[in-house]
Amino acid sequence: MMLSRHRAARLTVAALIGAIVMVGANQPGMSVPTAAPTPPQGQPLRDPPQYVSQDGVLRVRILVERRQVELAGHRLWALTYNGLYMPPTLRFRPGDRLDLTMVNRVRPYTNLHIHGLHVSPAGNSDNVFIHIHPGETYHYVYQFPRTLTPGTYWYHSHGHPHAASQVAGGMSGIIIVDGLQRYLPPDLRHITEHVVALKDFQVQGDAIRTEDLHIGAATNRTVNGQRNPTIQIRPGETQLWRLANISANIYYRLRLPGQRFHVITQDASPVTRVWSADTLVIPAGARYDVLVQGGPAGPTALETLAYNTGPAGNSFPRQALATVVSSGPAMRPAVLPTTFDPRPRTDLGRAPIAARHTIVFSENSAGTQFYINGRTFDENRVDIRSRLDTVEEWTVRNESDEQHSFHVHTNRFQVMSIDGVPHHALSLQDTVNLPARGEAVVRIHFTDFTGKTVLHCHILNHEDMGMMAVLQIVR
Hints:
Cupredoxin; 6-stranded mixed β-sheet; Immunoglobulin-like
């Protein structure tokens, strides 16, 4: 059984990894570290290899297997896609087709979810109810609409109740839908871009830990599978960074001291107005595409700050993730855009509401069972039935003492308020962080696709222990 919290036990981690982050320490009598040692500065950041569509089609074969990989200078057994802990990025355009053949060699079974993408949840498309057993091959076909929004998505296992163990073991990668550049000013359409994929791994002996996962245990945070890589930028240069939390369970609160993140998409939904922040909280499953400008010459730590998810949750410590090195001839900083997506977007705040639902997240006191509306997940039970081409309003209430990362498949939503405070959304989202003992009100427009799908907490330990419900979209 996978345990949600650090209360159950501390994990003894192999000394071979060194400079390991101690994540979470709410246990009585245990000191809470405010910062972990900075890992040694690593190699230049490596963007993942890419599979890119040609003539409107991307054909990919993914082999799922347990094998040894090189991580932090050591050989560890991991769960891999095509032999890699940081697998290839899938890259295509709106309107393309993805033909993906998955060959499975891991137990007990697996499947594939393409997170955040507006695509059919039925048949051999984004169907998370499929089980691909060891030795089996399954052929997925995804036909994406031309209206698919550009930005950063990701793919990962959704084989309930083994999603947390498989994603923690390494089974997650990036998806890029091209097209963001056309929204940028002409002088920013050919800037350097980087994937900044945030993954973490725990260690057990000579392997990445996949069972008895404790969210608050010691973990190794990586960027693109690297420990503290260096990111090169010139003073004043503008780059596009694709920030994605593709870990199983943990939160990030990113900061690049002296610089701001200029957000152009949230959850791969282009914003109507560019907004900036010196810190970004990225709950499990969430993504931001941001513009970053190089600071004065010298190194700066891209770091995650200390973050606490509540009395029943976890305390994540401050930790350096990468070293941004500003060097070379200075550039005149570009004038950054203030608006981004010129296409009209329907404001769901003005839409007629076809139905309203209250969705309650809760858990037992031991942190071993997690519920939606008082029930654990049952794939044979439909919990919410929604009609195509209508807008619904959902009040998502958190009755627990820790935050949860609320996620819906197939269609994005517009956040209307958080804890009763109106939220002026600049984009749609597929993930929103629920405050402890708080609530979010969202509106969701069901378009294009019918079928059975799910909504859940994207802290995958919580999902696997019951915090998921079935949504059926009907005509």
